[in-house]
Specification:
The protein is an alpha/beta fold and 198 residues long. The chain is built from eight helices and five strands. Helix 1 links the parallel strand 1 and strand 2.
Length: 198
């Protein structure tokens, strides 16, 4: 029986938790994400079973002892871009008040630092509808995730605008992806684009 890898999101804001859960599952589709409004909701004996805790700064402040014991697994969700001070010094954190693209990039950077090449994670399941992308589709995908618009992609690759649109549609259909954020995650996780290039 395969080992189940789990992440806990601990945040009093349910909407924020649901959004983060979706993003985490895009970055690490092989991981189960559980949502809790507080540390007290984590089932007894289950705390050590999580590979990471994504927790609001207030949750960490209210449960310093718990999070100190799990410091290496904890990522604080900080609304301010400023560096965290005591009692949060030494914890990893991400700023949540940034545009979606930057937040996805931060999550990918954390994933790459902690689990580069899938280290400490189960192998990602291949999506059943995932088919091999053509060389041109990979070129288009790379430019899309780097932020180029269709016209710029057409000019760079010396193809028509209609061809770019067709390639984008084919990429999304082949991968079963519906958003540029999810496409960015796919491209980085599969080595098509370096995280520093987005």
């Amino acid at each position: 029986m395969p080992v189940e890898f789990r992440i806990a999101v601990i945040h009093a804001d349910t909407l924020a938790s649901i959004g983060l859960k979706q993003m985490l599952q895009e970055v690490m589709p092989m991981v189960v994400v559980d949502i809790f409004r507080s540390v007290g909701e984590i089932p007894e004996g289950a705390a050590d079973g999580y590979i990471h805790y994504f927790a609001s700064a207030s949750a960490v402040a209210d449960n310093v002892r718990f999070f100190m014991e799990h410091r290496r697994k904890t990522i604080i969700l900080n609304a301010s871009p400023e560096t965290l001070s005591s009692p949060f010094a030494g914890f990893n954190y991400i700023c949540t008040s940034v545009p979606e693209k930057e937040l996805v990039k931060s999550l990918l950077a954390l994933e790459q630092a902690a689990h580069a090449g899938g280290r400490n994670l189960p192998p990602a399941a291949i999506m059943p509808n995932e088919r091999q992308l053509s060389v041109r589709e990979v070129e288009v995908m790379s430019l899309v995730v780097k932020g180029f618009i269709n016209k710029e992609i057409a000019d760079r690759l010396n193809i028509s605008l209609a061809t770019v649109v067709t390639h984008r549609r084919n990429i999304m259909e082949k991968l079963g992806i519906r958003s540029v954020s999810a496409l960015t995650v796919y491209a980085v996780m599969h080595g098509y684009v370096d995280i520093n290039g987005i």
